[in-house]
């Protein structure tokens, strides 16, 4: 009977997908704790800039001769940069800074370059016309020192040569750094390939330890913050988004203290107590979090906490740009089994290979299905079983266990299940 069937919509790329599930099989929808914001988003940002945490106002830090670098997120991140920049620029103007002394730098890390259209859309047409916008070049970096973890601090020279460095970004969970935001825009955001690989190489040492997502005390976060201090990061403006990608909180000021205040908001919204179920259906939350499999696996890493050992995870990720990393793609063809990927990762770190090992680790504990636009061969090579739809995955789950309880995670990239 239709009364016993629940229809559920999930984000898939820039559109969406729907499926039906018997209500008796639906354990829960794992959703963030949304809260109402009565003031407009521009006011939230302005208020954060006027009341910085453990810092002077930005307008008091700069002077009319200051050369300013503003680091912004690239196209793989959901940061609403076009909304952050106008109030941020107004604060700089209040301090006397001129447009010609400001440079906006897209933090690419090891990601691909953006198109001009993507860059223009990210910062907004008006800003793009009047402010110099450039992309991070990991081959043009200056050595500034070394962290206590042995990571060389090599920063894009356009940033290193600035008098004032400002970072913008979104605060959310991160599988390795604990959370995004803060100094992460410096390392790995605008660092050299050598620095980025050194930073990521610690993951092989921490890979089989306690989960790092949702923690601020991990070596990775400490490494990030040492590098940011050496680079001279002066000020951050970070925001927290709700499931509709709307700004619900903004923090500004010291790159550690302001970051931690934002983390408190993230935890209150996105850490969700759950009882592990037999299966979970997880959407990344749509574009850009499911732009490729490299990004989409971050949602898989959150979903594992919602499922019993031996259970099933169905990852719903469009992946229009394929696997998204050449090393990940190569490892996926070279490593025929999850164990091979894990053993290879233990012996030698290679950026991109860590994704093969991470998915391999999940595949040893759970049955993994993938609803995507990837060719079936690529899905299988990455240790997923390809399915055309969520319904097909559910048929397979219920054929083995008609009473299976299933969690649904519409915002897997944002939500971190915590065991009750």
From TrEMBL:
A Pfam short name: LarA_C
Top-level taxon of the source organism: Archaea
Example GO molecular function: lactate racemase activity
Ranges of residues in domain LarA-like N-terminal: 12-202
Domain spans labelled Lactate racemase C-terminal: 275-412
InterPro entries listed in its UniProt record: LarA-like (IPR048068), LarA-like_C (IPR043166), LarA-like_N (IPR018657), LarA_C (IPR048520), Ni_dep_LarA (IPR047926)
Protein name (database record): Uncharacterized protein
Annotated source species: Methanosarcina barkeri CM1
Lineage: Archaea, Methanobacteriati, Methanobacteriota, Stenosarchaea group, Methanomicrobia
């Amino acid at each position: 009977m239709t009364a016993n069937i629940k229809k559920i919509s999930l984000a898939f790329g820039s559109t969406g997908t729907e499926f039906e599930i018997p209500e008796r099989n639906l354990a829960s929808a794992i959703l963030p704790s949304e809260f109402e914001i009565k003031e407009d988003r521009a006011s939230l940002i302005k208020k954060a800039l006027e009341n910085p945490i453990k810092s002077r106002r930005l307008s008091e830090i700069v002077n009319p001769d200051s050369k300013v670098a503003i680091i912004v997120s690239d196209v793989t991140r959901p940061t609403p940069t076009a909304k952050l920049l106008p109030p941020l620029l107004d604060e700089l103007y209040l301090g006397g800074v001129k447009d010609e002394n400001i440079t906006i730098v897209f933090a690419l890390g090891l990601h691909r370059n953006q198109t001009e259209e993507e860059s223009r859309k990210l910062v907004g047409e008006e800003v793009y016309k009047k402010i110099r916008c450039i992309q991070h070049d990991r081959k043009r970096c200056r050595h500034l020192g070394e962290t206590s973890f042995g990571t060389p601090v090599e920063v894009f020279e356009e940033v290193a040569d600035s008098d004032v460095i400002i970072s913008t970004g979104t605060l959310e969970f991160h599988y390795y750094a604990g959370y995004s935001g803060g100094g992460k825009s410096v390392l790995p955001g605008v660092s050299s390939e050598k620095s980025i690989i050194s930073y990521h190489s610690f993951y092989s040492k921490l890979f089989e330890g306690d989960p790092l997502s949702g923690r601020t005390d991990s070596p990775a976060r400490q490494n990030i913050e040492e590098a940011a201090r050496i680079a001279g990061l002066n000020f951050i403006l970070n925001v927290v988004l709700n499931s509709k990608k709307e700004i619900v909180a903004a923090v500004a000021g010291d790159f550690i203290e302001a970051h931690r205040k934002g983390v408190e908001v993230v935890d209150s919204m996105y850490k969700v107590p759950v009882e592990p179920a037999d299966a979970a259906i997880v959407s990344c939350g749509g574009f850009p979090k499911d732009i490729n499999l490299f990004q989409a696996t971050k949602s898989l890493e959150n979903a594992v906490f919602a499922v019993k050992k031996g259970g099933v995870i169905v990852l719903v990720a469009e992946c229009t740009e394929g696997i998204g990393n050449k090393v990940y793609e190569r490892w996926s063809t070279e490593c025929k089994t999850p164990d091979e990927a894990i053993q290879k990762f233990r012996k030698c770190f290679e950026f991109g290979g860590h994704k093969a090992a991470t998915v391999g680790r999940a595949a040893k504990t759970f049955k993994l299905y993938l609803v995507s636009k990837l060719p079936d061969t690529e899905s299988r090579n990455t240790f997923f079983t390809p399915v055309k739809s969520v319904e097909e995955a559910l048929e397979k789950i219920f054929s083995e266990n008609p009473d299976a309880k299933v969690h649904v995670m519409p915002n897997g990239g944002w939500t971190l299940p915590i065991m009750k």
